């Protein structure tokens, strides 16, 4: 796994939005922040950082993953059960795929009801609803 494969994998999930925040961090959101979206994964764009990527793992997933070499609680987000992956080879490709899909599902399930309703709409209907919401 590397950053490009990470991006390809996360962008293959539904309703993902990418932003660059906090300097050199690629932040992956389930839905846009403006409609109540939440981040589910973060990757460092700058090499030499402690974490190459972090994601929501859930309480059990965090406990399981943090027993492994190269994985620790994520700084600032450990209380929300996020893990810090210290190097790309700490997980196999199949594990990356499973864990990122799970992170996406954990966050999708925690979205506000209105946001989930928006995501269930067709794209054109969703855009209309967002425009109407912003006008208010």
Describe this entry's structure for a reader.
The chain is an alpha+beta fold. Helices cover 41% and strands 22% of the residues. The protein has helices at residues 3-11, 58-65, 93-110, 113-120, 123-135, and strands spanning 16-21, 25-30, 38-44, 53-56, 71-73, 82-85. The protein is elongated. The mean pLDDT is 92.
The largest β sheet comes out as: 6 strands, antiparallel
Based on DSSP secondary structure assignment, what is the total number of beta strands? Answer: 6
Q: How much helix is in the residues?
A: 40-55%
Head-to-tail CA distance between termini: 44 Å
Low-confidence stretches: none
The CATH topology label is Aspartate Aminotransferase, domain 1
CA-based gyration radius: 15 Å
Which structural class best describes the helix and strand composition?
A: alpha+beta
Secondary-structure topology with pairs:
Elements: H1 3-11, E1 16-21, E2 25-30, E3 38-44, E4 53-56, H2 58-65, E5 71-73, E6 82-85, H3 93-110, H4 113-120, H5 123-135
């Amino acid at each position: 796994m590397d950053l490009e494969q990470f991006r390809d994998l996360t962008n293959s999930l539904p309703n993902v939005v990418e932003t660059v925040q906090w300097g050199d961090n690629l932040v992956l959101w389930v839905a846009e922040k403006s409609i109540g979206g939440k981040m589910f994964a973060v990757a460092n764009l700058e090499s030499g950082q402690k974490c190459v990527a972090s994601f929501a793992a859930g309480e059990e997933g965090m406990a399981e993953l943090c027993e492994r070499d190269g994985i620790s609680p994520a700084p600032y987000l450990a209380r929300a059960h996020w893990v810090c992956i210290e190097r790309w080879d700490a997980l196999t490709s199949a594990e990356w795929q499973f864990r990122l899909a799970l992170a996406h599902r954990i966050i999708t399930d925690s979205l506000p009801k209105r946001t989930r309703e928006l995501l269930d709409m067709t794209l054109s209907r969703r855009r209309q609803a967002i425009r109407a919401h912003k006008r208010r």
